[in-house]
Amino acid sequence: MSFKHSGMVQKKTARRRATGIVASESGALSVLEGLLRYEETKIRELARDEQLFTEGQPTVAIYEVKRGCVQLRRQTIDGRTVVVYTAKPGAVLAEAALFAPRYHCSAVATVASTVRGYPKAAVLSALHRDPKKMESILASFARQIHGLRFQLEIRNTRSAEARLLQYLELRADPASKRVMLNGPLQDIATEVGLTREALYRAIASLEAQGVLRREPGVLQLR
């Protein structure tokens, strides 16, 4: 199956939705940065595989990823780990904590990472004092929901090659068409619901078709 021409409409849709996700992340961050004083926030350094918080723990803060990569993970009833969201530098993590008593997922650093914590009580208090910022942050959350729906569509795609291509189009820089790898390829396999072996086969297939080029630390779309 070739994706060079038949995937053009799919690529354009992915780019539009990817733009929405980037806008939601940067929108939430811009609101948070202007909401609290620097001294009201807290920097935390995480080692690889260190947990930021665990599922069921009382919510105390939401976080901005400054460096590295942090994943939100949930355990299924059959013991599998499902990656709900991957947060990279500039992304806001665990926004739902503002309106929930406990974290619904666990957050784990996939590489050495730095995060900035915004205390829940302080953020809510500041938002209540500024309705316009409350509206802005809720709008950014709504756009992120659209992005998460698209990720569900990816998981429902049967072809491993098509699933991977959709994911890469969603995550690629719009100008360079590059996807920077901030962790092992296994992280992508987990996100798109493929085994590591199936992911490597899909990458090889797309490379053979001239759709994808693999470079050190980068997957380059063509």
SSE layout and pairing:
Blueprint lengths: L7 H26 L8 E5 L4 E3 L7 E7 L2 E6 L5 E7 L4 E2 L12 E4 L3 E7 H10 L1 H25 L4 H12 L6 E3 L4 H8 L3 H13 L3 E4 L2 E4 L1
Antiparallel strand pairs: 1-8, 2-7, 3-6, 3-8, 4-5, 4-7, 9-11, 10-11
Helix pairs in contact: 1-3, 1-4, 4-6
3D structure, described in words:
Helix 1 crosses helix 4 and helix 4 crosses helix 6. Strand 4 and strand 5 form a beta hairpin. Strands 1-8-3-6 form a 4-stranded antiparallel β-sheet. With 222 residues, the chain is of the alpha+beta class. The protein folds into 2 domains: 84 residues, Orthogonal Bundle (Arc Repressor Mutant, subunit A), CATH 1.10.10.10; 94 residues, Jelly Rolls (Sandwich).
What is the residue-mean pLDDT, rounded to a whole number?
A: 82
What oligomeric state best describes the polypeptide chains here? single chain
**The CATH superfamily title of the largest domain:** Jelly Rolls
State the CATH class of the largest domain: Mainly Beta
Structural class: alpha+beta
| CATH level-two architecture of the largest domain | Sandwich
Remind me, CATH topology of the largest domain? Jelly Rolls
Give me some keywords for this one:
single chain, 222 residues, alpha+beta, Arc Repressor Mutant, subunit A, Jelly Rolls, 2 domains, 11 strands, 42% helix, 23% strand, globular
